[in-house]
Amino acid sequence: MIDVLYFAWVRERIGLPRERIETTAATVNDLIAELSAREERYEVAFADRAALRVALDQELSEFTAPLAGVREVAFFPPMTGG
Amino acid sequence: MPMSVRIQPGPFDLGAEANAFAAAQSGAGAVVTFTGLVRDVSGGLEAMEIEHYPAMTQKAISAMVDEATARWTLTGALVIHRHGRLAPSEPIMMVATAALHRAEAFAAAEFLMDYLKSRAPFWKKEVTADGSGWVAAKDEDEQALNRW
User: What CATH number has the domain bearing residue B57?
Assistant: First the structure.
């Protein structure tokens, strides 16, 4: 089981802020493919990979990163702090 | 060294924060402060809604402050960043840095601002009478990181 969090327009497109997912995905890319195949709202939210960022256990990461040992995955658009 | 990162929904008093920060420094010759305000870019802004990733925000900003203190000799650093619903002209955030000399305090403050813009997990949504929309990240903000 892995906690998946969504922020900003990713959260709005998927329609929820977080969920627990049973997955055997090896990488972030695999998880995106798995979710996108599940329902259209995921496919829409994840369509433009260049507009997405991912954090693994609260650290910015790459889509190719492995998910082994990761407890929390977060998807969000580029940050606009300051 | 006094280092502080505060993430809060409520307002802060810029003058009181700057005075308290300056008073807490030991041996500093320079204090630099920066304050960001809610800006009404295209007119008609009713509010700015700022979302963040609570479990990551404090950690990410503390890492930026650690990096700044590794690069420059600072006597202290302070970051305050708000979230939630803010009105136009309200302060969103502030950075304060203190060092022996101004060059280090200015550089560290600019470094922190550049990283807060693109690497702190906040997302801004502009609310107008016509609806609302997420503020897009700017290419120049991302490119600004290259100078460090």
Answer: 3.90.1170.40
